């Protein structure tokens, strides 16, 4: 018996050894670099059915050997590699800038049963699987060291900074990793066509994260930057989404500042009590019209109680008042958005409802409280976005939406979503540190609706959430510029905005589409300095800090040639987000691109700077 067992073992080894040696002798590898040669992705077949990749940036290994691929009934058969390069320019309908370089090197690895497509840009890498639908993917992100990371955390403060090895539960993207003072990464996905949205499963005690998402057809991406602001400024996510269908016209999409009726309810000014009804709406439209703001957003309950199946989104509640305010808005060149709850969206014919809103002349739809699994919500979000586009409606998804993954390229009407904790929402407020964390994490995914810009810092008498705002008034105004959104929705009443004309002028000057955007400086959870060039050519800079006071020197290299008149609004010496929220000062000075501006920020404070070109 012992001899037979040994014989069987020897025969088994003899049979298997040629196959093993054959596999080892036919290992394949390929290297693809970014156009500027500073990013390097190496992919190799390390065993019969295993393919791994590594990622280097600026000569530093950041992601060590990590698995790629899909679960397949067939063995891997590395057929060939197809190389290509693209160098073009994307001109979005609206976005962070008017001209976006689209420059990458690409390889397609043909594995017979499916293909792995890899693209490397100057600001990151991406890969996707094509030709096979598989429930399970092998994708890993095995980081080269125990770096610090931050993560999306729903409508709460972000998770992090947290050592990679300390993550003990599934994490949601965006995942931001700080590898060094001049080395940052963001892990997310792009163009989620179908399947479960991206999740990241840590292996406790290690730096390894796998992808448990099922049946996903999407790009897996790693954005790279030498500062956290580089991650915000990247367009890699949008570029991995297809352009609109040939012949599609989105010239009707009008991004910009919008006023809102939800937070005005209960406010009193000069003997007038604001409500969510026609007379209050007219006052809001007048404010928008006088300050070149694009629209008014009508929130929940205009067609009846939003969670009631009896509330008809075409016939219920204040529908006649809605017709009147849409007509009034047209006279004033102000569009009207209409809220639609998921209950109304699913208990009444959705296509008919959205077509009717378009026929009424509405400008957009704010869709709230969508129910279902993440995969189901993604499918429904795609469906709603498409129908809205067909009816010339912009769209904003709220209350736990599917994360942005670049949809704004294919569907420019997808202007924003509440992929964050919005200010004064859910009957709570967020602290200054949350803002200067979320803009470096959540905002990487795409446009977010955070509802900053209140000027009544106490909110007394408000029906929904009469809580003091933990910010200074200058920070509230600054956040409207810092936050990237195709609908910058501000929550206060006309009287409060008119009380502070310089700050109102700063908000009014935010004319989209942006010609250019640049994160000048910042640190995650600490502070941010953002510059944007408006459609009229004027530049704006906004600054926000966490709970700590801060002094910053801001270079003005973003400005073009010539001189500019700078209106500088900053916290006064006695300002503090806890005790003196509204104290601020305004100064004017003549500047050029060779100058700098010194700013002092109060705890929880901010600064707003408007540059007007001198003729």
In brief:
The chain is α+β, with helices and mostly antiparallel strands.
Question: What can you tell me about this protein's structure?
Answer:
By secondary structure, the chain is an alpha+beta fold. It is 21% helix and 34% strand. It has 13 helices and 33 strands. The chain has a nine-stranded antiparallel β-sheet with strand order 5-6-7-8-16-13-12-10-11. The protein has a seven-stranded antiparallel β-sheet with strand order 1-2-3-4-9-15-14, with no helix packed on it. A seven-stranded parallel β-sheet has the order 24-23-22-21-20-17-25. β2 and β3 (50-57) form a beta hairpin. α4 (278-290) runs parallel beside α5 (319-332), α7 runs parallel beside α8 (374-390) and α11 runs parallel beside α13 (501-508). The protein is globular and about 80 Å long. Mean pLDDT is 94; it is low at 1-25.
Largest sheet, spatial ordering of strands: 5-6-7-8-16-13-12-10-11
Number of helices: 13
Main structural class:
alpha+beta
Major sheet attributes: 9 strands, antiparallel
Average pLDDT for all residues: 94
N-C termini distance = 100 Å
Roughly what fraction of the amino acids lie in strands?
A: 25-35%
* Unreliable spans: 1-25
State the total count of DSSP E strands. Answer: 33
Q: Taking Cα atoms only, what radius of gyration do you get, to the nearest Å?
A: 26 Å
Write down the overall geometry.
globular
Specify the helix fraction band: 10-25%
